Prior knowledge:
Layout: H1 3-12, H2 15-21, E1 42-45, E2 67-68, H3 74-78, H4 83-99, E3 102-106, H5 129-144, E4 149-155, E5 168-170, H6 173-180, H7 182-191, E6 195-198, E7 202-203, E8 206-207, H8 212-222, E9 228-231, H9 239-245, H10 257-267, H11 273-291, H12 302-316, E10 318-322, E11 335-338, H13 340-343, E12 356-357, H14 363-367, E13 373-376, H15 388-400, E14 403-409, H16 428-440, E15 444-449, E16 464-467, H17 475-483, E17 516-518, H18 527-533, E18 550-557, E19 561-563, E20 568-576, E21 582-592, E22 603-612, E23 617-624, E24 631-633, E25 638-640, E26 644-651, E27 657-666, H19 681-685, H20 688-697, H21 702-710, H22 719-727, H23 734-737, H24 743-754
Parallel strand pairs: 1-3, 2-12, 3-4, 4-6, 5-7, 5-17, 6-9, 11-13, 11-14, 14-15, 15-16, 19-27
Antiparallel strand pairs: 7-8, 10-16, 18-20, 20-23, 21-22, 21-26, 24-25, 26-27
Helix pairs in contact: 1-11, 2-10, 2-11, 4-5, 4-12, 5-7, 12-17, 15-16, 20-24
Amino acid sequence: MRKEEIQNLIAQMTLEEKAGMCSGANFWQLKSVERLGIPSVKVTDGPHGLRAQDEQADHLGINKSIKAVCFPTGCALASSFDRKLLKKVGTAIGQECQAEDISVILGPAMNIKRSPLCGRNFEYYSEDPLVTSEMAAALTEGVQSQNVGVSMKHFLANNQEKRRMTNSSKVDERTLREIYLAAFEEAVKQAKPWTVMNSYNRINGTYVGESKEYLTDILRDEWGFDGYVMSDWGAVNDRVEALKAGMDLEMPASGGINDALIVKAVQDGSLDEKIVDQACERILNIIFRFTENRKQGVAFEYQKDHELAAEAEAECIVLLKNEDEILPLAPDKKVAFIGKYAETPRYQGGGSSHINSWKVESALEAIKNIAEVTYAKGFDDDVDEINEELQNEAVCIAKEAEIAVIFAGLPDSFESEGYDRKHLDLPTYQNILIEKICKVQKNTIVVLHNGSPVTMPWKDQVKGIVEAYLGGQAVGRSVVNVLYGNVNPSGRLAETFPLQLEDTPCYLTYGKGVDEAVYSEGVFVGYRYYTSKKQEVLFPFGYGLSYTTFAYSNLKLDRIQMTDEEILKVSVDVENTGSCAGKEVIQIYVAPGETEIARPIKELKAFDKIELMPGEKKTVAFELDARAFAYWNTEIHDWYVESGSYEIQVGKNAEAILIKSVIQMEGTKKIKKEFNLNTCIGELMQDEKGKAVFSQMMGGNQQAAKMAEANQDKEVITDKMMAAMLNDMPLRQLVSFVPGMTREALEQILAAVNE
């Protein structure tokens, strides 16, 4: 429907109807206006499958939803580093939405993994904003290719479950821009989501849902978002203020209470009716975009989508350890599968994203087509207690086998929407079981089913570690295919696995405080912190092994000098030097040289995933624009590229840099500085105009030379110390140290420099 037609409909609506259009009809549906031909449409939870409820609706997964296909969760999908795969999964989800008459699916979930303790990290993609934004954009493009909308969530800085509905994230402007806003920015610009969901929390004291700065100034005016903003379920504090800020749709229904407040505000003049009209226009635009492009005869293809879920998870699995090339397994080996998750895998998280899966394929079921194995349950995960009988049985079959594969992980009770984790450990009974088996079986492999990092006290005792994450309903088949070499693992960690909780960047502040979360680590989130601090980790960001090997060579930059108005073209040759086909994730990091401002030692600025046959070589090309070199400057409130040298690094992961080259960058954006009597001489001399004026009025370096010559005791005050003292000396002190210098003369210098 054209804009003029929508505006004509709004002109025919009563104030009460317009106010009502700004909130849901019930838990999942938007209101209709039958007399004007405005239909009601339905939204539903996601983000890795449909959690569509018909009756007894709720938001936390208490009541069952329709049967659907559970694809790998966000933590798994991000580890694929594969945009094409995410788009393929998104397309399938979009088709399922069409089959169920769903106009908008709530997802992708894009919050940064600030701490591995966040209870909802299994839904989120990464600790890195580039990976988050690129993965979310790809999934969005897939979903919306089927004329179904997404709702990118949870905007913004919603990184913990503790008091998530009232908590205030205390975070500075630069950190918001470089990390938390950046996670959404390119996805919004590139994929054009139909809707965005604002989060529950406050930022620096203001509810996100009432922030014009975030919902209008940045999201709409800067990034060009043209859909509607909906609230998270119940994330409305002041409905009228939220409407003014840019929150168009309140979900779920408020029973008419907040609608009446909108009407009253318009009637008493505290709310301009044009704002209500604008919100209605945004909502109606999306409603008709869906209904007028509704696909007829689309059926839910359960088996087809189950196959895609298996294919996707196989691309997401990360091989963390493969000592003595214990993997892949040979079908004729005598193998024992141990652990409850081999039979009933943990493949998704709890809460609003919980899917009522059409089927679940376990490793025990999948292995029947490949080899014979023995099985022992090993543990129950309903309570954190050791079951001696189950453990003894597991130890016995492990001892009799040639290889033991332990299926371990985090139980549902350890990570879920609604609460945060208290530690990074597996349940004690699992760690003890692994250690017991390692004592009787030297060939032990651990397969992990978890939504976020765990500690591994047994890491050096086992020969293989496979990170399956929460891999969706076909995870069992995917794991077996990787274990037996039918699929070469190609996943890479989209988050750092620390050695211990105390090593994490926000350890001292995360989860502390009653109603305020202090982001004291600033931009040093995840690998930005670990690499800058040279902090040892369990497994670094970007890490992952393969059954083949890759060699990098011939790194080329199309120039060695550039300005921030140009594009740098980067290429590198990658060759499969092993004996089997495999996929490699090429990671491009940018490392600034010496800078005045504190910056991460390196940041991921581009990546791609390619497939290579044995002996095959490909040239992989990238383009880096100014943003790849910039930081957010709070003086000018904009991105700023500092002149100087930058390394372009090609890495296997954030710690293993294989090849690098240097580019000299000239920043063309100049910052106008106001100098004063407390400005240090060194700072003034770094400014071209300041240096010229100061040198002229000071008679070149004569005054400094006189001061140096006056230093008689070189052993006490060395020339190096003198130079440092002059560099850091505020201008006002020259009155005391330079003969004949007056405050008036200094004021003249400042006036000339600042004009």
